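[User] At your convenience, examine this fold.
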Amino acid sequence: MNCDILSTLYVKSNGEILCNDDFGERVSLGSCRQSADDPDIHQTLNNDRYQNIREALKNDRTPWPKVCENCSFFRPDEPYSNDLHQKRIIQKIQIEASLACALKCPECSNLIQIKTRSGGRHFTPEMMADLLGDLKENHYQIRSIEYCGQGEPLNNPRFPELLATARKIYPDTLQRVITNGNHDFAKTINSEYVEETVVSIDGAFQESYEKYRVKGSIAKAFKFLNDAIACQKPKGGIVVWKYVLFETNDSEKELLEAQRLGDEFKVTRLWFVHSHTKNRSKKYTYDNPHTIPIQFSNVKIDSHPSYFRHAITIVPDEAPHKITGNDSIKCMIAVDRLVIHENGSINISGWASSQAKLSHVTLEVEDQEVGDLAFVVRRPDVTGLHPVFSEVLCGFDSLLPPSAVSIKPGQVMNFHLCSDKDRVATFALAPQVGVIVPSQVPNRISGDNSVVCLMHIDQVLIYKNGSIRVSGWANSQAKLSHVTLEVEDQEVGDLAFTVRRPVINEHHSVFTEVLSGFNSLLPPSAVSIKPGQVMNFHLCSDKDRVATFALDLN
């Protein structure tokens, strides 16, 4: 069990430190130091409330019952980790720079918080200097500082000073501003450098935009977006247009117009986001996110993780490293993950860099171009590991629409690293991973039929070295210790229960055990496993086999 709060710090405009920007706002964890007698931030991060979080998660308990279960950042199935305490690494400090906002978005809690919260409405540069100074003195690393909260950050009249203060104390830390853009860029950002500027513009036309962004001007937001692009992109910053999908702005005409404008403005990324609100888009949901009409490679769709259960995910076990082309130029590329969706669209993420200036990467399969991968992700880790490269904006995370090529594991994929004029180099990658997503649920039981048992296999991955990854769950009225996989009368290995699956208990109240999921990597065996074979899964207690499920991999 884990939680995002153990790698982030959420600071409100009045200096209060709350348990994250969601349902966790109900829990106070401390506050920034107001006087010399107050505890510093290091002491706060080790106070009794933080200790409660750590101890509870370590022991598979929710730290704040009836709060954690409703919070978006709670991770009941994730292994416990604690960067704040063990490594002194803060992945993100979220600063609510201001509680004030001129817009009246109907689902926002801003008006309620203004009436009920005490303390200052603006986070001051002095508070920022004290907070970051304490963290620096106590040797904390900060990966990013994000300006976002229940108000509009740029309503802080001293916002440029916040940016400058953070830059002075933590010069290498990424700064990210999330804004509605209804501001004058020169007055609110000025000449300060921001690595990531995210402008929330929910629509392409004023009529639909103002249905949610009440009192907002899309013309102002577009001007801010263009000013941010003109100022930040030449310095290496990225500018993102964030477009939340509502019933009022999800027409095909408007989505295509947003993409046309995004291309015209030269935004780094146009990001369509699904909402949880009652006025969310019913046409494009978590169940069908890739039916959104996509025309440009810099469009990103944020989808619920459950959608990926119905996709084929390939995580290559090798990095392409052979170069064809001009061998006098050093080039590298790494593909982190490919997700092939049911409709044939492809998510592909990774990075590419070169001593020559690159403009994009083109993916080609079977001599047919599938699409272009745009550089939209900052990857300072690449330049850190490979100092021969100087370009930090070298990561891609692209959604490519369905193509005439049916991409599948084992195919050779050619990645052409391109400059504005020509191809600099070509890398070939053939992810040799067999992926099997069973079309049936194993349900035939042999053994003691008086004991109720159920099992489900989500996915079987067969790697080229013969190792196998099996994920799924098994549960029983009898206490289970593990599951043994057997093929052709030979034991392949044991699947350990390491993943919490509370949803199983919700659907099958006969079971009480929540730790019922497995995601095991089994080493190569004497049995060559392939589609068409029968896999026998023995559900075992400490003493004997409780039941056996047979799964035909056809």
User: Anything to note?
Assistant: Residues 218-232 form the longest helix (15 residues). Residues 304-311, 317-326, 432-447 have pLDDT under 50 and may be disordered. The CA atoms of residues 120 and 446 lie 67 Å apart. DSSP finds twelve helices and 34 strands in the chain.
